[in-house]
Specification:
By secondary structure, this protein is α/β, with parallel strands linked by helices. It has one domain: Rossmann fold (3-Layer(aba) Sandwich). The protein is about 35% helix and about 15% strand. It contains 8 helices and 6 strands; from the N terminus they run αβαβαβαβααββαα. The protein has a 6-stranded parallel sheet with strand order 2-1-3-4-5-6, with helices on both faces. The longest helix is centred in the middle third of the chain and has 19 residues.
């Protein structure tokens, strides 16, 4: 059953009203996947958002080149978020990230003016302070994920959760990809530890979804 049976127009009616019309209901959700992945990895969570009342045009399973620098991805994310805002008529989006997706989106928030366009930000299994696992892969993005990288030092200098967005992280004690597990939490964020989930399980676990949904809706988690 939809949480918003009367508040939200269908995607078709929203388009008919034009891109500048403000849409009642929750913010659009922009998903940012991790390394060696694409937007399809969000299928389970995106379907749950749609089943709970988010119009199809408000659920954006974005795909980008995960081998490039996270700074380059952040610039592209800025364009994608603006596209979603223009298309939906919303004033802000919610950003939900998995793994390395946390880094480009945080760069966008900190350095590219993203805090004025994001209401809530979510990191699932994010290597926010680096992961030793990234020493086993190559390319700009992997180098930036390594603990102590220049990218991470700059990203984590000063306020780790700048501006007005509501920040939240979820990390699992059984996630062997994020090493150390303490990398996920951010100063100033609502930091959560899940049950024993693997790295990809944070995207598909029902309890995590319910908590993420509560966060983006500003409702207290169950």
């Amino acid at each position: 059953m939809s949480l918003f049976p009367t508040a939200l127009p269908t995607a078709a009616s929203a388009a008919a009203d034009g891109p500048q019309r403000a849409i009642a209901g929750p913010d659009p959700v922009v998903f940012v996947h991790g390394w060696n992945s694409d937007g399809s990895t969000w299928r389970t969570m995106a379907d749950r958002f749609r089943a709970d009342g988010w119009p199809a045009g408000h659920v954006d399973q974005w795909t980008y080149n995960a081998n490039q620098s996270n700074a380059t991805t952040a610039e592209q994310l800025a364009g994608e978020i603006q596209r979603v805002l223009d298309t939906t008529g919303a004033t802000k989006v919610d950003v939900v990230t998995h793994s390395m997706g946390a880094l480009s989106s945080r760069h966008y928030l900190k350095n590219l003016g993203g805090t004025s366009k994001v209401d809530a930000w979510v990191s699932l299994a994010g290597p926010n302070h680096g992961t030793e696992t990234a020493r086993w892969c190559g390319g700009a993005a992997c180098v930036e994920m390594r603990p102590g990288s220049n990218f991470l030092r700059n990203l984590n200098s000063g306020d780790e959760t700048p501006g007005s967005p509501r920040y939240a992280t979820w990390g699992s004690p059984c996630d062997i990809v994020i090493n150390p597990a303490t990398s996920v939490a951010l100063d100033g964020a609502a930091n959560h530890t899940t049950t024993c989930l693997d790295h990809g399980g944070l995207r598909t676990d029902r309890t995590v979804y319910d908590q993420v949904k509560a966060h983006v809706l500003q409702a207290p988690p169950a």
